[in-house]
Write a structure and sequence with these properties.
seven-stranded mixed sheet, 259 residues, 34% helix, alpha/beta, single chain, 7 strands, Rossmann fold
Length: 259
């Protein structure tokens, strides 16, 4: 397991920090921490989550965009360049965990990614997914990020089950900020206002993680809210939020397969 790059700039933004805490709160319930554990991070970007996942075992990244892939390799991570909607260059039953953090909403064929994740997972292995929630919250940020859809918890559960996974947990994330975020999105939509955002989808020369800037005091407050939310997720699923976190398991008996 690697201790390299324990902290990178994105970790300081409340949204990323809160997502990481929430994921760790859930992953600790299911995943051991052992050097023999093998994890695959689909859509790993520049390795923004690989250094966190490395606490649980050996991580391989998968990324289609050559710009963040170059950054991940400069950081010393093992990353393969490939479109995740195509068959992955790994044999069946190879990984203990497959993660797709804010990935499948970018693809027309999200089921193809889930199905191939099922294939490369060992029986008993886990898939861990995060996605944006509710099409009603569609915003300029979704356009910039080239999203295809946002999900309901029911839709995500259904697609995971269709791909052969036993759904172990589905919880909303960003529960406490949901009222403010939803109100802000609706107000901007009514005014046709667009926040100051940048996206790596808009330039061929640069790669950056796009996120609306937050003032330091607000960032601290929202990060503290995220800490509270992560603690709650360690006990129960949250009923609403701006995004979803799901964990599914490949059945021990492969003969039970997808359905």
């Amino acid at each position: 397991m690697s201790n390299m790059l324990n902290k990178i700039p994105e970790d300081n933004h409340w949204w990323f920090a809160s997502r990481t805490r929430a994921l760790n709160s859930i992953m600790r319930q299911f995943l051991p921490r052992t050097a023999n554990f093998r994890l695959l991070d689909i859509g790993c970007g520049g390795g923004n989550m690989i250094h966190h996942l490395s606490e649980y075992g050996q991580v391989t990244g998968l990324e289609i965009d050559g710009r963040p892939l170059k950054i991940a390799r400069q950081r010393g991570y093992e990353v393969v360049q490939l479109d995740a909607t195509q068959p992955m260059p790994f044999g069946a039953n190879r990984f203990d965990v497959v993660t797709a953090f804010d990935v499948i909403e970018h693809n027309q064929d999200d089921l193809a990614i889930l199905a191939d994740s099922w294939r490369v997972l060992k029986p008993g292995g886990y898939v861990i997914i995060t996605v944006p929630a509710f099409m009603e919250l569609w915003s300029h940020n979704d356009d910039l990020n080239a999203h295809v859809r946002r999900y309901t918890d029911w839709e995500l559960r259904r697609k995971m089950a269709m791909s052969g996974f036993e759904v172990r947990r589905v919880t909303f994330n960003n529960f406490f900020v949901f009222p403010l975020a939803a109100t802000l999105i609706l107000l901007r939509r009514a005014r046709q206002a667009k926040p100051e955002l940048a996206s790596h989808h808009l330039t061929e020369k640069e790669y950056q993680v796009e996120m609306e800037p937050t003032s330091p005091p607000v960032n601290v407050i929202l990060s503290m809210v995220g800490q509270l939310e992560a603690a709650l997720m360690g006990r129960f699923d949250l009923p609403i939020g701006t995004s979803l976190i799901a964990i599914g398991q490949k059945r021990i008996s492969e003969s039970e397969g997808s359905f």
